[in-house]
Amino acid sequence: MNVPAAGDDDAEHRVVEGREALAAARLQLLAAARHRLALHLPLLGRDDYGNDAELAELKRIATSGRRAEIRVLLHDPATALRDGHRLIMLFQRLSSAIQIRTPVEDVDRQCASVWLLTDTGGYLFQPDAARPQGRMALPDRAAQAPLLQQFDEIWERSARASELQALDL
């Protein structure tokens, strides 16, 4: 469903429902990103950001040059590490471009929404991480701005996920 935003004729807005549709939306947004991403992940499902195509796009962004930056707010990094999630393995190999933090304040930890925000103005927003539905736009900076502002505020209050650092023994 395409619903153009007022004043943004280039924005493509869609309601996204179902796991396959969410995976396709994530891949489309990742492919459109140039150098920077912001991800808010209360839950990191085994299939979320773990397939070959998504990982290839994440690696492309992380290795895109000096401006490369992928910021991830992950509520439960210990579970992702224990489960051997492929995103964590990518982070451990490219930790100079991928940063993962964990929200520490209760108000931030209670936020159950999932966000994928790109430097090209695209976004994917799921109001509830446990439900496979949300909305996306490619691009729409006006709609993305409040999400990015909230992400930045939570990011500043969060702690580095030090348990994910690879040990070089």
Automatic annotation (TrEMBL):
<feature type="domain" description="DUF7931">
    <location>
        <begin position="20"/>
        <end position="167"/>
    </location>
</feature>
<protein>
    <recommendedName>
        <fullName>DUF7931 domain-containing protein</fullName>
    </recommendedName>
</protein>
<dbReference type="Pfam" id="PF25559">
    <property type="entry name" value="DUF7931"/>
</dbReference>
<dbReference type="InterPro" id="IPR057691">
    <property type="entry name" value="DUF7931"/>
</dbReference>
